[in-house]
Design brief:
alpha+beta, YefM-like fold, 3 helices, 3 strands, 39% helix, rod-shaped
């Protein structure tokens, strides 16, 4: 854990969660300190790219042509 970042109290975190999430996005994480002194981190987790995020490309091949090509490549 890095200690070069500000530490927020639990009360501040509850009242300003949206701001803490923005800061976690910029810094990758922020530290929250509870009343009894426990420390927690709020960490930003980047969204993974999914196949559904890729642009649609029309390759003008039929399903059978694609399957035929795959079989041909596997036989090599």
């Amino acid at each position: 854990m890095r200690f070069d970042m500000p530490v927020y109290t639990y009360i501040d975190a509850c009242q300003n969660l949206d701001k803490l999430m923005d800061e976690a996005r910029q810094r990758s994480e922020v530290i929250i300190k509870t009343r009894n002194g426990d420390l927690f981190t709020l960490r930003f987790v980047p969204k993974k790219k999914l196949l559904s995020d890729l642009p649609d490309n029309d390759i003008a091949l039929t399903r059978d042509e694609i399957i035929s090509y795959i079989r041909e490549v596997r036989e090599r």
